[in-house]
């Protein structure tokens, strides 16, 4: 793997922040994880990967046996990119190390959306680079099918550090599905992933991330986006499998007039899972828009669901919605919606609700022929169904498939 060389100033900032805890979430002792793993062989045909690995990746929305409905594919196992390919003109998919070698201008996008000294997790990504993906849509090009990317944790107790750069050039349209998963069903691991999105004027990006970890894995994504004039960033996050600890608080800065960001998240916390998840939108330009929608279910785990909208320009609009359902066990859901208005002429709103399934709803469905289990399942299914405006049909189908598969396990 080519060495990733960052400017000295970034290394210095990262070194100074190597012990800085995150503002939210459980603190993790990075020294309990190993930082290196054996190299992996490149796979020109990813369908030849072991069947069990492909099965795990498929559970996270990554299809390798038939990639005709994908515009490009990237796979990284532990520290090594093992496959990258494209099936459509105008789309680039590369390991980020190769993109840094290919383009001098990549430095303009390196640690611009995410600050390298945010906390010890961003610092670790800088100081222990394990590659990552570079996905770009050239000006005016639109993906016919989604680009898929998989970050796969195969070695037990590994701390995987990845840095991803996504660029949608002016007037382009880019649809991405990212699946993150692990080979082991019970071994510890740590995933730290920095993802920086740059949506240029009039460009559209839909990004659907499906996490399918195991009950011993800790996860620390650090994601941010910058959206220019008339651009759209639509981010969907799905976590319906047990995970030991997750903390993420992605942020989008709408810097161009009429820029739009929408966040949708579906979360399930099983017993032993601790989730601190949120989304932030900074509306910094006239007419910017945002909608943040969160659906959270606990079956015994703890969920902190955050949301933050800040209005800094005239005629901006934002709505924040968080709904939590305590299904069973002694789980906790703590919704923390925040709105901040710094100027007149803005329109920001929020609503939040946390509770259990209403007995009258169950009885209503039972009176129409369902048993209690079927009635409960129907209510949960409706609760998890979020109408995501602007999502391509194929990506919507993939998202729904992931939700339905997890629903069966949940019930």
Highlighted features:
ten-stranded mixed sheet; alpha/beta; globular; 411 residues
Write the layout of secondary structure elements.
Elements: H1 8-16, H2 51-59, E1 72-77, E2 80-86, E3 91-95, H3 96-102, H4 120-127, E4 133-137, E5 147-153, E6 159-168, E7 173-182, E8 189-199, E9 204-212, E10 217-227, E11 232-239, E12 245-248, E13 251-254, E14 260-269, E15 274-283, E16 289-298, E17 302-311, E18 317-326, E19 332-341, E20 347-355, H5 359-366, H6 372-384, H7 393-410
Parallel strand pairs: 1-5, 4-6, 5-7, 6-8, 7-9, 8-10, 9-11, 10-12, 10-13, 11-14, 12-15, 13-15, 14-16, 15-17, 16-18, 17-19, 18-20
Antiparallel strand pairs: 1-2, 3-4
Helix pairs in contact: 1-4, 5-6
Short recap of the structure:
The protein is an alpha/beta fold and 411 residues long. It has helices at residues 8-16, 51-59, 96-102, 120-127, 359-366, 372-384, 393-410; strands spanning 72-77, 80-86, 91-95, 133-137, 147-153, 159-168, 173-182, 189-199, 204-212, 217-227, 232-239, 245-248, 251-254, 260-269, 274-283, 289-298, 302-311, 317-326, 332-341, 347-355. Helix 1 crosses helix 4 (120-127) and helix 5 crosses helix 6 (372-384).
Walk me through what this model shows.
There is one protein chain. The protein is α/β, with parallel strands linked by helices and 411 residues long. It has 7 helices and 20 strands. It has a 10-stranded mixed sheet, covered by helices on one side. Strands 3, 4, 6, 8, 10, 12, 13, 15, 17 and 19 form a 10-stranded mixed sheet that branches. A hairpin with a 2-residue loop joins strand 1 and strand 2. The protein starts with 7 loop residues before the first helix and ends with a helix. The mean pLDDT is 91.
